[in-house]
Structures are given as C-alpha cells and as structure tokens.
Specification:
Blueprint (H helix, E strand, L loop, with lengths): L2 E3 L6 E3 L17 H28 L2 H6 L6 E7 L6 E7 L5 H13 L8 E7 L9 E5 L3 E5 L4 H8 L9 E7 L5 E8 L2 E8 L4 E10 L5 E4 L8 E4 L5 E5 L2 E6 L7
Parallel strand pairs: 4-5
Antiparallel strand pairs: 1-2, 3-4, 5-6, 6-7, 8-9, 9-10, 10-11, 11-12, 12-13, 13-14, 14-15
Length: 259
C-alpha cells in the first residue's frame, strides 16, 4: 500500500484515504495545488472536445447539423410513392436555404428512401411563408434539378433591411414573399392613397387607390378605374387582405421593416 504524508498533520497515511485517521482532514493526500491542477487539466480536455465538435460541425452537411439540433431545419410533411409513378415529397423548412444548402438537404431526402422511383419531386415551403405555392422545387430524374419560386436568402434579407424613412406618412407595410416578392407600403399624400411595391432589385411600382372606411373600422382600397373586381382591405390590426368575387385571395400580416 502506497503511503504519503498528510497535507495537514504530516502523519503517514494511504494515498487512497478519504480522511486522515490522525487529524480528520478530508482528502489528506491531495494538496490545494494538486486540486487546482486537476481542474485545469479537466478544463483543457473540455476545451479540446468542444473545439473538435465545432470543427466537425463546420464540415457536416446541412441535414446532419439540422438533425443534431433540438429543432430540425426541415420536416417531411408528405412522402408518397406508388409503383410505376414518381415519388412526391413535401418538406417544411424553418428558414430559407442557400443553393448549396438546398442541394444537400434534397440529396439527403432523396437518398433516404426505400422506393425505386426513377423520378422524385420534392416541394419545399418555408415556415411562416405567406405565399401558398412552394418556395422551391427539386427534381431528380435521375440528376438533380432545382427551381426557386420564392425569394432567395439574399432577396429576403434585402427586403428585410429596407429603410422606409421616406414614408413618414406610412399607414402600413407588408412583405409578400412569393414569386416576384416585394414589400408593399400604403401611405396617404395630399388626400390620396397610394401603395408602393418595392422589389429587392430596387425597382418600385406605385398604384393609386380610392379609400373607404368600413363599418367595422377597416379600410377598403379600390383601384380608381375599378377594372378588376379585386380590392384590398386593411383591418384594425393592420392585416392586409386581397379580396374579390371568390373570397380572400391573399392575407398578409403587418410588417415592420428597418426604420
């Protein structure tokens, strides 16, 4: 049995003793400097492990990183296949993806299938998306092909960063994120109502409307020529609806861009 002097009374005790039988001090064989040294070594080991994990995460595919988190980047909502027909998959994303990320996720979904379909269609929607159509679609036949219908990551961020300081008379604003996505800004000048549609490319389209206050306090906006049966309604909460003979075509929540 190995012996060493107690750190307190110097009485010879076993190196594995929990307390000194002579003076009763705890951990008699471990000095304060040894205890600190152990903590330093433990901290260094933890740091190395974290560094290795972070480095590995950078090299992981989008799907691998997504599935390693508590909130996956994507969720398969439908996956249909019958013999002799294409496989059709519907996917919900929690954010817009870059082209590279979209390709990685699509390839993971395509490879994780027991079907022998020659053709696979994967439709992608984004969580919170206002447009009812797919944000993007990927086709394998057998090679990879992608089509983006909604705003790209860059276009979306560009619209999110719009500065609307030139609209001190702004009544409301809304973000349409589908094909030809843009920010709509409603304002009143010289007693007239206008809606500017501002695109990520910097282009802008201005249209004038005749306004009418409805009994419930909502604002109805009708084109002056009334060539179309469609019109807009802005309710008391700032929600914009496009309405027509067949009901509501579009609903957009209020949007607050950079000011």
């Amino acid at each position: 049995m190995a012996l060493k002097p107690c750190k307190s009374c110097k009485h010879s005790i076993s190196t594995s003793a929990k307390t000194c039988p002579n003076c009763g001090v705890a951990n008699p064989g471990v000095t304060e400097w040894q205890r600190i040294g152990r903590w330093i070594i433990l901290a260094a080991i933890v740091g190395v492990v974290v560094s290795i994990y972070m480095g590995a995460s950078k090299n992981m595919s989008v799907g691998e990183v997504a599935q390693s988190t508590t909130r996956p980047m994507y969720k398969i909502t439908e996956d249909e296949y019958s013999e002799g027909r294409p496989r059709r998959v519907q996917v919900l994303l929690n954010q817009r993806l870059t082209e590279d990320q979209l390709a990685k996720v699509a390839n993971i979904i395509h490879s994780n299938s027991k079907s022998n379909a020659e053709t696979t269609f994967i439709g992608f929607r984004v969580e919170g998306q206002s447009d009812k159509s797919s944000w993007a679609q990927v086709k394998f036949n057998p090679d990879y092909q992608s089509t983006l219908y909604g705003l790209s990551v860059e276009e979306y961020q560009s619209l999110k960063a719009l500065d609307l300081k030139d609209y001190p008379d702004r009544i409301g604003s809304w973000l349409l994120d589908g094909t030809f996505g843009h920010v709509m800004v409603l304002y009143q000048r010289d007693g007239k109502y206008f809606i500017d549609s501002i695109f990520s490319t910097g282009g802008k389209n201005t249209e004038r409307y005749i306004a009418q206050t409805l009994p419930d306090g909502a604002l109805r906006l009708q084109p002056p020529n009334n060539d179309s049966s469609k019109y807009y309604v802005v309710d008391a909460k700032g929600t914009l609806q496009e309405r027509g003979e067949n009901g509501v075509y579009l609903t957009l929540p209020p949007y607050q861009p950079a000011l």
